[in-house]
Amino acid sequence: MSLVTLLPFIVLIGAMFLMTRSAKKKQQQAADMRNQMQPGSGVRTIGGMYATVKEVSEDTVLVDAGPGVELLFAKNAIGAVLSDDEYNRIVHGIEHDLKSDVVPDDASSLTGTDEPAAAADSDEKSVDLGKKDEKDEAEDSSDAVSAEAKTDDEPKKTDGDTDAK
User: Fold this and answer.
1) Which residues, 6 or more positions from 74, have their beta carbon under 8 angstroms from its beta carbon?
2) CATH code for the domain in which residue 61 is found
3) Which structural domain range is residue 63 located in?
């Protein structure tokens, strides 16, 4: 047999070897993670339940899921062992050291003046968002008619067509 005939088989066997090797590596990491569990650690089960480890035996884990709720799980049912900060953030909603980075609701406190932003922009014309009376609507329509009359006096521009020969 020639080398060209054997090459596809060699590549296929090499790919299978690499895939099984990475799967074994992931299984080993998961087993190491499960062996790291100690009483008091926060865990997430493969079903998505968060709990605190109470007791660890060879094949099982006793977890405390709430006041007076103790559950017995197989070690393989533990999906992740969480750090204390991550467990408290997810379960209790406690953010770690993020309370000091509070952004104020009003940006005027950042400028150093106590005036609100509306008072600083008082020289600009304010926009009335309320309903208009019939008198105001009549005045607005007469202003629009006079504006149209002004534009009719100006010569209209064309798109390049001229009457010149």
Assistant:
1) 59, 60, 61
2) 2.30.30.100
3) 7-92
Structural domain count, the chain: 1
Query: 42 — alpha (psi -120 to 50), left (phi > 0) or beta?
Result: beta
The pLDDT score that the predictor gives to residue 38 is 87
| pLDDT > 90? residue 31 | no
Under 8 Å between Cβ of 106 and 120: no
Is the pTM value of this prediction over 0.70?
no
Domain membership of residue 40 (yes or no) is yes
Distance CA 95, CA 101 (A): 11
Closest CA to 64 of 36, 45, 86: 45
CA distance 16 to 19: 5
Structural domain includes residue 77? yes
Which range has highest mean pLDDT (31-35, 69-73, 98-102, 140-144)? 69-73
